[in-house]
Write a structure and sequence with these properties.
The complex is a heterotetramer of chains A (315), B (218), C (483) and D (676).
Chain B lengths: L1 H24 L3 H26 L3 H27 L12 H25 L8 H17 L3 H23 L4 H29 L13
Helix pairs in contact in B: 1-2, 1-5, 1-6, 2-3, 2-6, 3-7, 4-5, 5-6, 6-7
Chain C lengths: L1 H19 L5 H26 L4 E3 L5 E3 L1 H19 L10 H23 L3 H18 L6 H36 L8 H6 L6 H19 L7 H8 L2 H30 L1 H24 L4 H20 L2 H33 L10 H4 L1 H14 L6 H15 L3 H26 L17 H16 L3 H15 L1
Antiparallel strand pairs in C: 1-2
Helix pairs in contact in C: 1-2, 1-4, 2-3, 3-4, 3-10, 3-13, 4-5, 4-10, 5-6, 5-10, 6-8, 6-9, 8-10, 9-10, 9-12, 10-11, 10-12, 10-13, 11-12, 11-17, 12-13, 12-17, 13-15, 13-16, 13-18, 13-19, 15-17, 15-18, 16-17, 16-18
Chain D lengths: L1 H20 L3 H29 L3 E5 L9 E5 L1 H24 L7 H22 L3 H19 L6 H29 L7 H7 L5 H19 L8 H7 L2 H26 L5 H24 L3 H28 L3 H36 L10 H4 L1 H14 L6 H14 L7 H4 L1 H28 L6 H4 L6 H19 L1 H11 L19 E2 L6 E2 L1 H21 L6 E4 L17 H11 L1 H4 L2 E8 L7 E9 L3 H22 L6 H21 L2
Antiparallel strand pairs in D: 1-2, 3-4, 6-7
Helix pairs in contact in D: 1-2, 1-4, 2-3, 2-4, 3-4, 3-10, 3-13, 3-20, 4-5, 4-10, 5-6, 5-10, 6-8, 6-9, 8-10, 9-12, 10-12, 10-13, 11-12, 11-18, 12-13, 12-16, 12-18, 13-15, 13-16, 13-20, 13-21, 15-18, 15-20, 16-20
Chain lengths: 315, 218, 483, 676
């Protein structure tokens, strides 16, 4: 009986995340527009785009194979699976036993893997360029993510998401300098993985600069909708990971209605704050040249390494 | 009686060594052959002395063989070969005469040092001559190394055999007769084969200078 | 007495027959081959006698004696002798009748002298026989008079004779040591007498004698630094002769050294001989392995490989009873493998006309069976399973580790690997690729390959198991030498 | 058990005999394959029986190899695991070989290929069964020799012969080192059986134990292909026929891991901490540098060979972590590390075998291994493409498949490093985690390139256009391995306890430490993580099924049509517009430029009229692994220089030779005279 309630709560948490995701992307765009003194499209504009795309017909390249058609479904499914695993609202997760932080990271890598293949399939130069650059960035970000997980697991005693959140919530002592360094490292990785500004410009269609956009250039109709939605969900997941793993206050410990509403409220507040930070960041700095990106990622790697050593020494 | 016996032996073996050293001093091939002939004759004489005083009747046969084989037959064959390749006098050997004499002196001293335990162990009166025999062995080795002509190398080798024969006679009053005869047979066969090869070298290389034989390397 | 007659008689008879038949006829070769089987049978008889525990001796003063060591060597000599007789020079091998006749005479004399050397109990006669081997084999090297063969023969005869003369010096000193201890009498030079009275010999003199012996017979065995004649002689000699020389003459010379080792060990203990063996053995392996790296002539490559294996056997002899067991087994395996290799090299030389590795290519395509056997033989020589040399090398190195010399064994393993790598490189250059221009493809006559393949099969059998009669023979040898 | 052993021998013998007697025709090749499959299956059955019942199988033949304790086969659980691995891979490869060897029809090498394949499988199966040193080394060298001749089946290309030469040289050096290690241990033991060696090991002095371990590491590491000793692997594996490369990469290099485990863990019973640290260091180095060089390859089979180096590195990290934890007395984590290493050994055998077979069918269809001439094969070889994709996902450690399961275990083992008391030693673990993560990320990038360039988009050459699907038996072989990859990915909780049991009794590792719960989630005590692959896979499948339903519910548009690829408005798409393998790897080449040190030469010849007009530009850039130049060239040059110096000794002058003789004589005389 309890399992079924837990299962239902887990699924509803994922559904909530799915619903909020396009709005989050819309919010970031709206904030950037306001910062650039533009009126900007309303925050719910992405919902309209998705609805429009779902009604459009699909044009598929003649060179493409079944990989091209299957990729959107795989990307979307893996991102939703991650949403099920990540503690967005409540801590005693029903699916805690199914996967830990490592599984989350590698599920996201599964999504990037198939998206890159889909980029290569139509045989256009842009898709190939996007795939190559996306995989390069993903590969270089892996060590940072692994070390950040190591730092968190060190203090929490396990890589299990629920345990990490519970450990950080259990008291101020748990928040060590290692956490701060790990947070910064993961923040840089978030910008890299979700294709935000210093690494990739989400708003541009300039062939030479886009990474994520280049891979999905060939998609249209419902496939493109699925991929856009998955991308926005990925952004939301990373934001919730950042907030809950490092600033978990407000995450519902029990299943009472009051705790749940508090959790939703704290989630919204945290998302808005993070969206604001990203929007300010994107208006302040310009896009890095592709071959400078590894330096940024090595900065994040060093931060993660310091996080691990500090948590080692202060244990 | 023993004193005279050992005196004669020392005289004989020193004469044998001196003839060896003459080889190093002189340059011409004819001198080499005559030095070798006389050396064999003196060696035969020493063998007769040891046979007489040591009362070992077989040694007389050995002395006769020595005299016949190394005193007469081999020198005649060597002279025939020498007349055939006479125009080639022994050119400058690897080591000039002065250094080769010094080196052979050192070798004789080394021979002395090495054979001291032999002399100490032996109770035979002829033991005093053994270091000289060892000296001759080492000197003849040096001769074979430093001489350029095949003919002279053969003479050096024959001198080496003389040295060892002397060592055998002085040390043990001669090894058992059958073995001694076998040794002579081998010595003769060995010399004949070397003679055949020298003729072959002369045919193919038009000279018997061993320095030309350096085509096979590595 | 009968077995010795059957052992020593056939080569003499064959030589006599060859001399009498003035214009050479093929029947001489046939008879020679049949007679060689006689001496092979005799050595097997000696072996069975030994298994029954009886050491056969005969002749006045027991001057002929066949104990375990002699029987093993007699086996090797008669096997290789039989191979040489069966596969001897045929007239179309660019040799004329007179040359083949001369070859038949002296090869049989060569076999006779070696058999006599290994079965004579008298150390003096052993010396005479080994000197005679030098003389009889020297005459055969310049069978075809070329600048190279004349040069090789002169170097062989001169270095060999000087070496043997020093060995005679050693024999004299040994006899001198015995005479001072027990006075002169007829059987003083018998090995059995020397070993029995070895304890009373004067250590200083017997050590000097052993130095003479080791340098003397070491020259004949191709031990460094007296090995210099070996590559020239084996590369220039006709194939059957170089097979006999590389295969078994080196073993006979080592046999003589081992005889005297038994005497010296009984007199002064193992320390002295072990030191000398390891010094010269390692020097031989070093020189041979590094000479193999840049070798460009496959007959010289096989010659240097013989030097390497002789060095390895020497090191083995210095590693205690287990080492002697392994060294003797290695000697037997090496004899089989190396003689087969030289016969095959002879066939390749006959077909390609050149001994340069660079000019021989596509051997597998040109002569598939000979090429295949050549490759298998070379893999056996460099010590790969399933051939016998792998087992004997394993036992040898195990003896080395058991004797407490890990660093020495490490060095030997490293040098063997250098030799292995370079010979594999040379083999690959010869086997693969297209056959050189102007080389007729297709195997010549197949029947000579049959005995060689038989040798390879015996080597395979020794590689998989160690037949008990051979094991008892080797155990007896260890008792003789190691006591 | 004895009958199964006999059946295994009979199977391989049948295959070899069939190859020699009737090589040609479908029947002959079928028989050869049948022999291999029968032998493999029997070996697998025997291994499973020993693994499950735990009773070791002993077979004695004292007459054979009687020079050192005769022929002794003693299969304990560790040996059975590797024997099972050989059998497990022999079945698909044998099946695959039946059709693949059709390309050798009519050539003399077909007879050789069939016979040697079965001999190779036989000797490789007997290596883990060996009970004493001589049997082990006999089978070991037999395995190397047969695989050397298999590498040399196509001897008309000179670089194959060179590759064979390198391969045999390295394996023989490895054998010499292993021989030294065993015999160094055998000095104090009565006989050379593993039992006696194990008994005599505690008596060894610490320096001797370290020497034995280092020799074993070098000897077996060269066979495994660990970083500094890996140079033969990318040369030899691609040269062999594909099903042989699959066997070599899948199983033969694991014999190096088996040897190291047998000597390091079983006979020596573990050692000081630096052993584990050295293994982890070498493993991490191999993982990263192996995958980096794989990225730059555009010969499909060389790419896979370099990946074997990477995966061997991961296995060494697992085993190194196990050894290190054992030295600190943490049996639970030690077992976890070892189990992670062994599990990755099995997984690597599966997916590497699958990938090599896939590459083989591509090479079989196209006749070339150069990826730049491939492309669009998914439309012409759909099933091969699917199998290759499964292999690619497995090797890139993507979740539901087996690569992820074992890599997850390795991560958990390394994360257990926090339990190590000394911080300065424990810092090795996070570094290894970082290197491992970088390696797996790069592996994912490399296999996107490998799969994308080979199978997707437009064919780049005429050969790629006329490619035909691989014959049925080759597909069957690949299908078997693909199913194995998926199964091993979903059922780690079934496999891990068996692996844990193999470690029972080896060294001081107690089996009880790893009671992997039989429940769905893989919960390892002492470690910090928990995951359940079957539930994960179930979740993904359910989501994938729900999506099309959801779309229909939302009333999404169903219609779709086929159009041209978007090219900023230009008409027509030619293969030259596609991304090539080199282009795909170009960003990473630029990022890791100092490691690659690519050579660049640019030659521009200008138009005679003026400097500003160019007639032609030629640009060539190559990557030569400088590790090889650094580590291998100077010893080879040194040996060559020494050889030339030694050669001068034989200078041809008779006087010089006589001088050597006399010098030796005089020196020995002085030594004898004054020696005490």
């Amino acid at each position: 009986m309890v399992a079924i309630i837990g299962f239902a709560l887990g699924v509803s948490q994922a559904a909530l995340a799915l619903l909020l995701a396009p709005g989050l992307v819309g919010l970031v765009r709206w904030l950037k527009a306001r910062l650039q003194n533009r009126r900007g499209a309303p925050a719910w504009q992405p919902y309209l785009e998705l609805a429009k795309l779902f009604r459009k017909e699909v044009v598929v390249s003649s060179n493409a194979s079944w990989v091209f058609r299957a990729a959107p479904f795989i990307v979307f499914a893996s991102t939703v699976a991650v949403a099920l695993l990540v503690p967005i609202l409540l801590v005693p997760l029903p699916f805690d036993g199914v996967g830990d932080l490592l599984v989350v990271v590698y599920l996201l890598l599964l999504g990037t893997f198939f998206l890159s293949l889909a980029g290569l399939d139509p045989g256009s130069a842009f898709g190939g360029m996007g795939a190559s650059r996306a995989m390069t960035v993903a590969a270089l970000a892996e060590p940072t993510v692994a070390l950040a997980i190591f730092a968190l697991a060190l203090s929490a005693g396990s890589t299990n998401l629920g345990q990490i959140v519970a450990r950080t919530m259990s008291g101020p002592a748990a928040v060590s300098p290692g956490h701060l360094l790990a947070f910064l490292a993961l923040f840089i990785v978030t910008l890299a993985e979700t294709g935000r500004l210093p690494i990739d410009n989400p708003a541009t269609h300039l062939e030479l600069t886009m990474i994520h956009e280049a891979m999905v250039l060939e998609y249209s109709g419902r496939y493109l909708a699925l991929i856009e939605w998955a991308a926005s969900l990925k952004l939301l997941i990373f934001f919730s990971l950042l907030s809950n793993l490092f600033v978990p206050w407000g995450v519902a410990a029990g299943l009472t209605a009051g705790a749940l509403t508090l959790a939703v409220a704290s989630l919204l507040v945290k998302l808005v704050i993070l969206a604001a930070v990203v929007a300010v960041l994107e208006t302040r700095i310009a896009k890095l040249r592709l071959f400078r990106v590894p330096e940024l990622l090595s900065v994040s790697f060093v931060l993660a390494l310091l996080a691990v050593t500090s948590s080692f020494l202060l244990r | 009686m023993d004193a005279a016996f050992s005196q004669l032996c020392v005289l004989g073996s020193s004469l044998v060594l001196i003839f060896g050293l003459i080889l190093l001093w002189r340059r011409g091939v004819t001198a080499y052959i005559s030095a070798f002939m006389w050396q064999s004759i003196v060696l035969a004489a020493v063998t007769v002395v040891v046979a007489h005083f040591g009362k070992v009747p077989e040694l007389y046969w050995v002395a006769v063989c020595l005299l016949l084989l190394k005193g007469i037959v081999i020198p005649r064959l060597l002279r025939r070969m020498e007349r055939r390749f006479s125009p080639e006098r022994e050119l400058e050997p690897y080591v000039n005469t002065a250094t080769s004499l010094v080196v052979s002196g050192l070798l004789v001293l080394f021979g002395y040092a090495v054979t001291r335990p032999l002399v100490a162990l032996s109770r035979l009166p002829t033991r005093v001559g053994m270091p000289l025999a060892m000296g001759l062995v080492l000197v003849s080795l040096f001769v074979v190394i430093s001489r350029k002509k095949a003919l002279t190398q053969v003479v050096g080798f024959l001198m080496l055999e003389n040295g060892l024969a002397l060592l055998a006679v002085l040390g043990t009053y001669g090894i058992p007769l059958i073995v001694e005869l076998g040794v002579f047979l081998d010595a003769l066969m060995g010399f004949l084969v070397m003679q055949i090869f020298i003729y072959q070298i002369h045919e193919t290389f038009e000279s018997i200078d061993v320095e030309q034989l350096n085509r096979l390397r590595h | 007495m009968r077995t010795f007659a059957l052992l020593l008689g056939p080569p003499l008879l064959a030589a006599l027959l060859a001399t009498m038949v003035r214009p050479y006829r093929r029947i001489v070769g046939g008879v020679n081959a049949l007679l060689s089987l006689g001496s092979l049978g005799a050595s097997l008889a000696l072996w069975s006698e030994l298994l029954a525990g009886r050491v056969v001796t005969s002749g006045p003063g027991e001057f002929l004696r066949a104990d375990a060591l002699s029987t093993l060597l007699a086996m090797c000599v008669s096997v290789v002798g039989a191979l040489a007789a069966w596969l001897g020079l045929s007239r179309d091998d660019s040799y004329n009748g007179a040359q083949v006749r001369r070859f038949r005479i002296f090869v049989n004399l060569f076999t006779f002298t070696m058999l006599f050397a290994v079965t004579s109990n008298n150390v003096g006669f052993m010396w005479i026989a080994i000197e005679a081997t030098t003389i009889t084999s020297a005459l055969l090297i310049p069978l075809q008079v070329t600048k190279a063969s004349v040069e090789a023969s002169w170097k062989y005869i001169l270095i060999g004779s000087i070496g043997i003369a020093l060995a005679f010096g050693g024999t004299v000193l040994g006899y001198f040591d015995f005479v001072n201890m027990a006075g002169r009498h007829e059987t003083a030079l018998n090995w059995t007498v020397l070993v029995a009275s070895a304890a009373h010999l004067h250590p200083q003199v017997i050590q000097l004698a052993f130095v003479f012996i080791l340098v003397g017979y070491g020259t004949k065995a191709g031990l460094a630094p007296m090995h210099t004649w070996l590559p020239d002689a084996h590369a220039e000699a006709p194939a059957p002769l170089s097979a006999m020389m590389s295969g078994v003459l080196l073993a006979v010379a080592l046999y003589a050294v081992v005889r005297w080792q038994a005497v010296v060990n009984a007199a002064v203990g193992r320390g002295f001989t072990d030191g000398l063996y390891i010094a010269l053995g390692v020097l031989s392996i070093v020189i041979a392995s590094f000479s193999l790296v840049v070798q460009s002539n496959y007959k010289r490559m096989l010659a240097y490989s013989s030097i390497e294996h002789t060095g390895l056997i020497c090191v083995g002899l210095a590693l205690g009873p287990l080492g002697i067991f392994a060294a003797m087994l290695h000697m037997l395996n090496h004899t089989l493998a190396k003689s087969t290799m030289f016969f095959l090299a002879g066939r390749v030389l006959h077909r390609y006309g050149t001994a340069e590795i660079g000019h021989v290519s596509g051997l597998l395509k040109a002569m598939p069976w000979t090429g295949g056997l050549f490759a298998t033989g070379l893999l056996a020589v460099i010590g790969l399973p399933p051939f016998g040399l792998f087992l004997s090398e394993f036992a040898l190195i195990r003896a080395g580790f058991a004797a407490g010399r890990p660093w020495l064994m490490g060095l030997v393993l490293a040098l063997m690997t250098v030799a292995f790598v370079s010979m594999i490189g040379h083999l690959n250059r010869m086997l693969y690729g297209a056959p050189a221009a102007g080389v007729s493809v297709g195997e010549g006559s197949h029947w000579p390959l049959v005995p060689l393949a038989a040798c390879m099969v015996t080597l395979l059998v020794f590689g998989v198991t160690l037949p008990t009669p051979l094991e008892t023979l080797l155990r007896q040898i260890v008792e003789i030498v190691g006591s | 058990m004895r009958s199964l052993f006999a059946l295994m021998l009979a199977g391989y013998a049948l295959g070899a005999a069939a190859a020699v007697l009737r090589p040609g025709g479908r029947g002959g090749r079928g028989l050869v394959a049948a022999g291999a499959v029968l032998g493999g299956a029997a070996g697998l059955a025997l291994a499973l029986q020993v693994l499950l019942t735990g009773t070791p199988f002993v077979l004695e033949a004292p007459a054979v190899l009687s020079i050192a304790d005769g022929l002794l086969f003693r299969i304990d659980r560790l040996g059975a695991l590797f024997l099972g691995l050989v059998g497990f891979l022999a079945v698909p490869c044998g099946l695959y070989g039946a059709a693949y060897s059709e390309g050798y029809e009519g050539r003399a090498s077909l007879r050789l290929l069939g016979a040697l394949l079965n001999l190779f499988l036989l000797t490789m199966s007997l290596v883990p069964c060996a009970g004493n040193v001589l049997t082990f080394l006999f089978m070991w060298e037999g395995m190397s020799l047969t695989s050397y001749f298999l590498v040399l089946t196509e001897t008309d290309e000179p670089e194959t012969v060179l590759a064979g030469g390198w391969y045999l040289a390295m394996t023989h050096a490895g054998l010499a080192l292993a021989l030294a290690a065993f015999l160094l241990m055998a000095t104090s033991s009565a006989s050379t059986t593993f039992g006696d060696l194990r008994a005599a090991a505690p008596a060894l002095s610490p320096s001797a134990r370290n020497a034995v371990f280092l020799l074993a590491l070098l000897g077996f590491g060269s066979k495994a292909g660990i970083m500094p000793l890996h140079v033969w692997l990318p040369r030899a594996h691609p040269a062999a026929p594909s099903h042989v490369s699959a066997l070599m990469s899948g199983v033969m290099i694991k014999m190096g891991v088996y040897g190291l485990l047998r000597v390091g863990l079983d006979l020596l019973g573990g050692g000081p901490t630096w052993w584990g640290a050295l293994l982890i260091g070498l493993g991490a180095l191999s993982a990263v540098i192996g995958v980096l060089y794989a990225l730059m390859e555009h010969d499909l089979k060389r790419l896979l060979a370099y990946h074997s180096v990477e995966n061997i590195g991961i296995i060494f990290i697992g085993i190194g972590a196990g050894l290190m934890f054992q030295s600190f007395g943490l049996p639970a984590l030690a077992t976890l590390g070892m189990v992670a290493g062994l599990y990755h050994t099995i997984n690597h055998a599966c997916f590497k075998g699958l990938l090599f077979l896939g590459a083989g069918s591509v090479a079989h269809a196209l006749g070339t291994r150069n990826m730049e001439e491939m492309g669009g094969l998914i439309k012409r070889m759909p099933r091969t493409a699917l199998f290759f994709l499964v292999g690619a996902c497995a090797i890139s450690a993507l979740p539901p498949l087996n690569g992820f399961a074992s890599e997850w275990l390795v991560f958990q083992a390394l994360l257990g490093g926090s339990a190590i008391p000394q911080p300065e030693v424990a810092v090795v673990m996070p570094l290894a985690v970082a290197m491992l993560a970088l390696a797996s990320g790069l592996a994912a990038a490399c296999f996107v390139k490998a799969f994308g360039i080979t199978f997707l988009a437009i064919p780049r050459s005429a050969r790629a256009e006329q490619a035909h699907e691989a014959p049925r038996s080759m597909q069957a072989g690949m299908a078997m391995l693909a199913i194995a990859c998926v199964a091993l990915g979903l059922l780690p909780f079934a496999v891990a306890p068996i692996l844990g049991s193999t470690l029972a009794g080896l060294g001081r590792v107690t089996p009880a430490a790893i009671e992997l719960t039989r429940s769905l989630p893989l919960q390892v005590p002492g470690a910090s993580g928990q995951m359940s692959p079957p539930l994960l896979a179930l979740g993904l499948v359910v989501l994938l099924a729900l999506l099309p339903l959801g779309l229909r519910l939302l009333g999404a548009e169903r219609r779709g049509r086929v159009g041209d690829t978007w090219g900023c408005g230009r008409i027509g798409q030619t293969p030259r517009m596609e991304y090539t393998a080199t282009a795909f790897a170009e960003p990473l080449r630029r990022v890791f430029a100092e490691l690659y040190r690519p050579t660049r030469d640019l030659s521009i010849d200008f138009h005679p009229a003026s400097k500003y007009f160019v007639q032609s530009i030629a640009y060539r850039s190559e990557i030569h692994p400088w590790i090889e130049r650094l580590l291998y060239n100077w010893p080879l040059r040194g040996i060559r220089r020494a050889a030339v110096w030694v050669r001068r000794l034989q200078a041809g002058s008779l006087h010089l030779y006589l001088f050597y003789l006399t010098l030796a004589f005089l020196v020995l005389l002085t030594m004898a005279r004054w020696w005490r």
